[in-house]
Please model this.
Amino acid sequence: AQKITQTQPGMFVQEKEAVTLDCTYDTSDPSYGLFWYKQPSSGEMIFLIYQGSYDQQNATEGRYSLNFQKARKSANLVISASQLGDSAMYFCAMREGDDDKIIFGKGTRLHILP
Amino acid sequence: GAVVSQHPSRVICKSGTSVKIECRSLDFQATTMFWYRQFPKQSLMLMATSNEGSKATYEQGVEKDKFLINHASLTLSTLTVTSAHPEDSSFYICSARDGLGQGTSNTEAFFGQGTRLTVV
Model:
């Protein structure tokens, strides 16, 4: 079974609009961390935001916020005021318990339209 | 911020030859590094966990004799693709986590720039 599910293979959004990228996860470990990474066409992985399972508040980093709904096992990424430079592949990922390895979802390709 | 340097960024090799990819943590010590493989338009698939001073831990389905991993120091892990074939052509990317940590705030894994391997 997939640990990380991203149901949107691709999205097209008008510049300056907000966009929500969906992510659900599956774990039985009470301690885990959730990540979002951006991968532009160059291939590098750019860290965007992190949410710990015990964090009380939703994580925010500039224009990025993570809508963490623990009971639903959902960790959607919200990008406010989208920009052309936001066009890229976005991956949701999870680290479980004491395990250091990070497992990735299949990704969502985001296209920002001028 | 912490930086992970991966080299080379691109390599083309002939079928049957071996290719070595280096992953260095530049300003922190990494007791553990991870190697991922990414096919075009697909996700990153974890291949193995590289442990400093000990054998790597390979994910199911990854041939350890084909993908040799060496983590000889706290700042360097290498992945050698032995007897490469065209089906090994892929994007390989490493990541590392600061082994010493920075309190509870050091939660992200830092990624190298990736290596695009083409076997002809």
